[in-house]
Amino acid sequence: MAQVSSKNVDPRSGFCKSNSIFYSKRKPIPLPQNHSLDVTAYISSRPHHGKTAFIDATTGRQITFSELWRAVDSVATCLSDMGIRKGHVILLLSPNSIFFPVVCLAVMSLGAIITTTNPLNTPREIAKQIADSKPVLAFTIKELIPKLAGSSLPIVLLDDPQNITPEAKFLTTLQEMMNKEPNGSRVRDRVNQDDTATLLYSSGTTGASKGVVSSHRNLIAMIQTIVERFNLEEAQETFICTVPMFHIYGLAAFAMGLLASGSTIVVLSKFDMHEMLSSISKYRATNLPLVPPILVAMINGADQLKSKYDLSSLHSVLSGGAPLSKEVIEGFLQKYPTVKILQGYGLTESTGIGASTDSLEESRRYGTAGMLSPSMEAKIVDPDSGEALPVNRTGELWLRGPSIMKGYFSNEEATASTLDSEGWLRTGDLCYIDEDGFIFVVDRLKELIKYKGYQVPPAELEALLLTHPEISDTAVIPFPDKEVGQYPMAYIVRKAGSDLSATAVMDFVASQVAPYKRVRRVAFVAAIPKNPSGKILRKDLIKLATSKL
Fold this sequence. Notes:
GMP Synthetase, Chain A, domain 3; five-stranded parallel sheet; 29 strands
């Protein structure tokens, strides 16, 4: 996977004529050669400059690095005493918390596997993930216990059990586990870099949510990329954590990557503009990772926000989820001239790594997702012919590198259609790479709707809508929106004699899915356009929906 030194590789674009592979122009990342290494041991062995690892933005509670590693050791001891062993799956259902990384790191140190889920998901959606991943234990907060009601999973409570309802049963609390004296002689299975560390759920290129199997090596490669990208070994930085930790973006950056650099992380339990900006001011934060809708909100409210909050410590915002337009980038820089914008592109299947812009100059290559991350290789493949294409030709982006997943959990068919025998990941994104090695995302081959950075698979909503007794056929498409990026719109074919309303359709979906998956626009049609093989012609419906904009 390392950079290829050859007369066939164009130093400007990184394209190799002899094999049609684009090689990263970034300096290759050094990876540890010790095969018997888990990601927790790797992070804890790294030097750190600061004393404070995590700060709770709401309560002000802080965890120092020494307290963090003692807590991880104590929780791992308790888990070992409970019989948790290598290969066991542990579910973490929680909003952002300074204790989120404690659980993840303790679980992975034993060779057990962490699976996370969105706290906004419904009990039905969570039950589906539990049935698939088969966890043996769950960590959650008392407010979310009802979402696990049908699972009979043993529960460890992350927060204070005070005022908990009598029927809410739990084994112990995280605080009690953290108070236990670590036991150095506890049972420890040998963990190596190829073992599975995380099982995060993604919709992949199409269809239902699938468990992405990532190894300790994948996570270590991701951490090294983040540390090298921000030169974090040279300075003490403070990051604001607003992005969800259950998602690869939050988990990779905050529970692991930035922690390994010795940075201080200020954690918001959920996004709130006032709390985010007041935390920047209070803790003199230097870096703000976010998604494009938050960036747009900061531009629109800039004058009022700047008069109310001291943002002078902030020097970088890090945007992920979708490339930013010229208008957004320049609009932000005009309002916040001392803050630079960096961007990133990645998938759960690539452990959040793929491409990035590492300077304001690179971000001003408007519309780009950035240049390939260190040690990452790419192909641009014609979806029809399978031919690998050269510079400035559009095709599907394929990625290969040390952070690419092992595969989908217990799903050979989905793995085979996404990962080929040579380790290439089909991203489902239509892209081209220009003469300077910058990637541009043109369209999605994959049928995903991006709502505020969350993935919404149309197929999941379509399957749900077809269970309605008055719906005979349906298609769900992304509808563009300046505030949220895209939201789900449903085209509905009513059964004969039905007078089903748009509101009834939206209410039907809203009662069964997480808020970000809700259908927010409905149109009734006589038939859903499909090709001869029965595939929905989504592009025709998108064109129809947006023609009146």
